[in-house]
Design brief:
single chain; alpha/beta; Butyryl-CoA Dehydrogenase, subunit A, domain 2; Butyryl-CoA Dehydrogenase, subunit A, domain 3; four-stranded antiparallel sheet; three-stranded mixed sheet; 13 helices; 41% helix; binds flavin-adenine dinucleotide
Length: 437
């Protein structure tokens, strides 16, 4: 059992949760402790992600009760586990499909900031039709040798482990011969080439795998069962990306082996540095102006809050953001009840694409021509211009808008499934991706 549960805690009501968190904070919160030590205590207590299962680093709380716990942590501006794909995708997938050894090792390392993960799914010839992937993994002794190319891998540059899906049986039909691995990124067979975006930043990369090696012990969920495992990752991705009001700590620690030194600093120092960054305006662009409150604040500060068109726009963004938050909580509840989310997760994902575009337009309407200024001199220290340029991204990543429409059409409205002539054909015989040449 991964989580230390010394006494059987009663955590059935908000007041029980509140008292338990307060007692935990009284006993363990120490701003002079290192971030690393604090994250360890948090992970082993089950309070790092209280909505996760009690035996796997959580407390098994409902979303509502987890929100009560996070509210208590907010009161002291507490620092939580590192954010990102490791916690949002890798950990829940391993909890669902991994062995107990994999759960204990990988999930704890994620929560204490030792490993950062990236998602090695998309390929040049496999995006929306992900099951057409061509990267292959071949058994050699007790290891697999991996060859192929991935693309759009977010955060690959700073990642330690990859959620890799690769073809292990080309004679099976395309969904059946895929295996899910946890692959070490720091090895001679893996080359990461950053891709520069329209914003000038490089958040994702191409990843070339040339005779890269991964142990057979690192298979998650069984040989040739990778599609099933990947669906859990994708389901968590839709919920996470569609989550207007996600649950969590007010601050998140840095993570990954490259952050080892940062994790040695004290919790107090880290909190102060985050406060300084926030007052200096250095907050990720997409987080700043994608909700009604932030837009209203911006309109007030620019003297545009009397303009009827601006007010209508802000109210529309606020209404959609609120609706989406409730919808996302329902989708999360389905995942945490042990199942995969239903089509409501696709609605949330679609809604975030729409809210992002709408916020971009309202933000630009508020700022006027100055909204085009990038860099420190621009509105919100240039964040508005970055948001403008980055707004198309949510319509593509985690499954494009069209793919979400297909899911809703088929699973909510009962429309016939899209025809797929390739689904019963062995992968080896398919004309797909670069294999079609
Ligand atoms: C910012 C960003 C970050 C990303 N991060 C990652 C990551 O970390 N890891 C990773 O593995 N991938 C990542 N991706 C890749 C992303 O998942 C793919 O871009 C996405 O799945 C679409 O695939 P594609 O780009 O190959 O487009 P395609 O699948 O080639 O689609 C092209 C166009 O055709 C449409 N289309 C395709 N099929 C259908 C259909 N059946 N019905 C109707 N329309 C259809 C699409 O909607 C799209 O408009 C990221 C992408 C972006 C933009």
């Amino acid at each position: 059992m991964a989580t230390e549960t010394t006494t059987a805690e009663q955590l059935d009501t908000p007041s029980q949760v509140r008292s338990a968190v307060t007692a935990f904070i009284d006993e363990h919160w120490d701003p002079s402790a290192s971030l690393k030590d604090w994250l360890g205590v948090l992970a082993d207590s089950g309070w790092a992600v209280p909505q996760w299962p009690a035996q796997w680093f959580g407390k098994g709380l409902t979303n509502d009760l987890a929100a009560v716990a996070y509210d208590e942590f907010k009161k002291i501006n507490a620092v939580g586990p590192p954010p990102g794909l490791s916690r949002m995708l890798a950990a829940p997938t391993i909890i669902s499909h991994g062995t107990d050894e994999q759960r204990s090792a990988y999930v704890r390392r994620i929560l204490v900031g030792e490993d950062a993960w990236c998602q090695l799914f998309s390929e040049p010839g496999a995006g929306s039709d992900l099951a057409s992937l061509q990267t292959r993994a071949e058994l050699d002794g007790d290891e697999y040798v991996v060859n192929g190319q991935k693309v759009w891998t977010s955060g690959a540059m700073g990642s330690d482990v990859g959620m890799l899906i690769a073809r292990t049986d080309p004679d099976a039909v395309k969904h059946a011969g895929i295996t899910y691995f946890a692959i070490e990124m720091d090895q001679p067979g893996i080359e990461v080439r950053p891709l520069r975006q329209i914003t000038g930043e490089a958040h994702f990369a191409e990843v070339f795998l040339t005779d890269a090696r991964v142990s057979a012990d690192n298979i998650i969920g069984g040989l040739n069962n990778g599609w099933n495992v990947a669906r859990t990752t994708l389901a968590n991705e839709r919920v996470g990306l569609g989550g207007g009001g996600s649950l969590g700590f007010p601050l998140s620690a840095p993570g990954g082996r490259r952050s080892a030194q940062l994790l040695e600093q004290s919790v107090g120092e880290f909190v102060e540095s985050q406060k300084r960054a926030a007052t200096g305006g250095r907050v990720p662009a997409m987080m700043m102006v994608r909700n009604g409150e932030a837009l209203a604040k911006m309109a007030k500060s620019m003297g545009r809050d009397q303009d009827p068109a601006v007010r209508q726009g802000i109210a529309r963004v606020h209404a959609l953001t609120s609706l989406n938050r409730w919808n996302t909580l329902r989708a999360r509840a389905a995942v945490e009840a042990g199942g995969r989310p239903g089509p409501e997760a696709s609605l949330g994902k679609l809604m975030v694409s729409r809210i992002t575009r709408m916020s971009r337009d309202v933000g630009m309407e508020i700022a006027g021509p100055s909204g085009m200024l990038a860099g420190e001199d621009g509105p919100l220290h240039g964040a508005l211009a970055l948001q403008f340029l980055g707004a198309p991204a949510p319509s593509i990543y985690g499954g494009s808008d069209e793919v979400q429409h297909n899911i809703i059409g088929e699973r909510v409205l009962g429309l016939p499934r899209e025809p797929d002539a390739s689904k019963d054909v062995p992968f080896r015989s398919l004309r797909t991706g670069t294999q079609s040449q």
